[in-house]
Amino acid sequence: MILYFDFDGTIANTAPAVVQAMQGAFRTHNLPVPLQARIVNAMGLALPSMVEGLAGKPLPPQKVAEIIQTYRALYAELPAAMITLFPGMKTLLERAHAHDMTMAIVTSKKTDALQRNLADLGIAGLFSTLVGSDMTARHKPEPDPVEEAQAQLGFPAGPELVIGDSGYDMMMGRSAQLPTCGVTWGSQNASALRQAGADYVATTPEELWDVIEAQAATPAASAPRSGTPG
After folding, report:
1. Inter-residue contact 44 to 9 (CB < 8 Å)
2. In sequence order, which residues have a C-beta less than 8 Å from that of residue 100 and are 6 or more positions away?
3. Dist. CA 49–CA 44, nearest whole Å
4. With 62 labelled, which of 17, 155, 197, 213 sits at a CA distance of 20 to 30 A?
5. Same domain assignment for residues 212 and 140
6. What is the pLDDT of residues 176-192, one digit of tens each?
């Protein structure tokens, strides 16, 4: 069984840190500061797309790059305690690892930032590969992050599942022709996840484990591909 996890909003609650750093970046560059809800809803996009969307108007590429640079600097300065694992997720990850499931993270943040977060949370050793935004030319909702993870893992055989909290994760999984499970403790609710094509929706880590177990018992060839919610 191969599990492709999103990080922000799925494994860890990074929203307080992302919101503070993003609002600080916009404030630094004398731009209207986006509301928390808009920032959280945009999480999952690569930073250039996220910044342009939050600005609400076209920005010169150089300005986008400057905002991103400021955001990353502010994010790196925040205390590690601002980023926490969602309740039950460490148990789920350790359980999957104990069952010899292969786990990867596909994220819209840079790989070095992800590595730092995983180390701070004490879960870095559970994952076989990490794919950050710096490792693919195209990002969520395109299939490239998952396809890069598959390539790094040697295109393993067996059931696969894409897990995330945003519609971008679901669309990425669908584009890669993989079954998807949305989780509701992050940025989007069950309805939005289903509209984005989630095959399954979990409201707790316990429900997510049930989906994983069911998918692990499903031959890869017959795994859902239609986007019909479970």
Report:
1. yes
2. none
3. 10
4. 17
5. yes
6. 999 999 999 999 999 99
